């Protein structure tokens, strides 16, 4: 699949944004109005940029609102509806927090649940596709949820540390979630490397229905230049590049943040370290999401001679 930059930004930033909202709903970050303003503004910026970037991948962004009407059958539509509901409730929660220093516990818990369900819906846009075998697994939404939680906890710990308040609970939550998230991702990668189109019996022969008369090969392309399907769904990335990018993703997205969190937890401070950890994690997650799309084999590639 083509790793479109708009979708990479969407899944990365909105995931961290909704992860932060989930953590704030659980009581992370100081409860004073100033801390609330900083934390809530950061969450709104991340989710806003992420959701806005997703529309750039549409042929007609001005028609994006129409997708909301298909919530009965479309995970994309469900994600859009859930995002609007979650952000609307978060606006109320943020106003009470900033203006009255009042964090209503029941609203916070509901926000956490809605945020997690929104991230789940985002993951299922891809995890529900039968045409991409490596995505169609329960590990896909699990990884999305764990990374959202880890990123959100890391952001909450960073805000708390910058505001000069205790960040220990968020630090430990981020540390635990970060380790579990990357462990799940390694399991996901291990499964994905074994789950190819060929491994499930799909080939040009099965795609065309001509396997009974022999091996099918592409004699001549049906068009003289790449079409939409080839640009969006037929993408190849070299194995060496994959290994290098996986290492980059793990080091920047996992190892650096974990090390920074450990130092901050032991020293009881380290706001600067946590800022570096956030930036490193963001870059690492973008590399992870790039690979998520670039490595995916779509069944339509079989009609273009790929095996």
From TrEMBL:
Superkingdom, taxonomy of origin: Bacteria
Kindly list the residue ranges recorded as spanning the membrane. 7-29, 35-59, 80-100, 106-129, 141-163, 169-188, 245-265, 271-292
Tell me the GO molecular function terms.
dimethyl sulfoxide reductase activity
Give the UniProt record's GO annotations in the biological process aspect: anaerobic electron transport chain
Is the keyword Lipid metabolism assigned to this protein? no
Give the record's keywords alphabetically: Membrane, Transmembrane, Transmembrane helix
Pfam families linked to this entry: DmsC (PF04976)
**A GO CC annotation given for this chain:** dimethyl sulfoxide reductase complex
Q: Which InterPro entries match?
A: DmsC (IPR007059)
PANTHER family, A to Z: ANAEROBIC DIMETHYL SULFOXIDE REDUCTASE CHAIN YNFH (PTHR38095:SF1)
Put simply, this protein is called Dibenzothiophene desulfurase
């Amino acid at each position: 699949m083509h790793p479109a930059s708009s979708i990479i930004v969407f899944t990365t930033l909105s995931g961290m944004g909704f992860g932060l909202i989930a953590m704030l709903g659980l009581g992370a970050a100081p409860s004073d109005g100033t801390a609330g303003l900083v934390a809530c503004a950061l969450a709104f910026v991340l989710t806003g940029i992420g959701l806005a970037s997703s529309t750039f991948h549409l042929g007609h962004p001005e028609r994006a609102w129409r997708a909301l009407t298909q919530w009965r059958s479309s995970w994309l539509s469900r994600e859009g509806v859930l995002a609007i509901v979650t952000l609307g409730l978060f606006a109320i929660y943020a106003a009470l927090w900033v203006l009255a220093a009042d964090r209503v516990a029941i609203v916070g818990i509901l926000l956490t649940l809605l945020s997690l369900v929104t991230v789940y819906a985002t993951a299922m846009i891809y995890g529900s596709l039968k045409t991409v075998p490596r995505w169609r697994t329960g590990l896909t939404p699990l990884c999305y949820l764990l990374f959202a939680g880890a990123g959100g906890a890391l952001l909450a710990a960073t805000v708390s540390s910058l505001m000069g308040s205790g960040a220990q609970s968020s630090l430990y939550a981020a540390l635990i979630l970060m380790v579990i998230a990357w462990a799940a991702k390694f399991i996901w990668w291990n499964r994905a490397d074994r789950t190819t189109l060929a491994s499930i019996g799909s080939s040009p022969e099965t795609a065309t229905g001509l396997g009974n008369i022999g091996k099918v090969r592409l004699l001549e392309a049906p068009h003289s230049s790449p079409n939409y399907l080839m640009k969006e769904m037929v993408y190849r990335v070299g194995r060496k590049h994959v290994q290098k990018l996986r290492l980059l993703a793990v080091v920047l997205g996992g190892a650096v943040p974990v090390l920074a969190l450990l130092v901050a937890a032991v020293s009881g401070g380290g706001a600067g370290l946590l800022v570096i950890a956030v930036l490193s994690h963001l870059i690492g997650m973008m590399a992870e999401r790039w690979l998520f799309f670039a490595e995916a084999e779509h069944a339509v590639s079989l009609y273009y001679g790929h095996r």
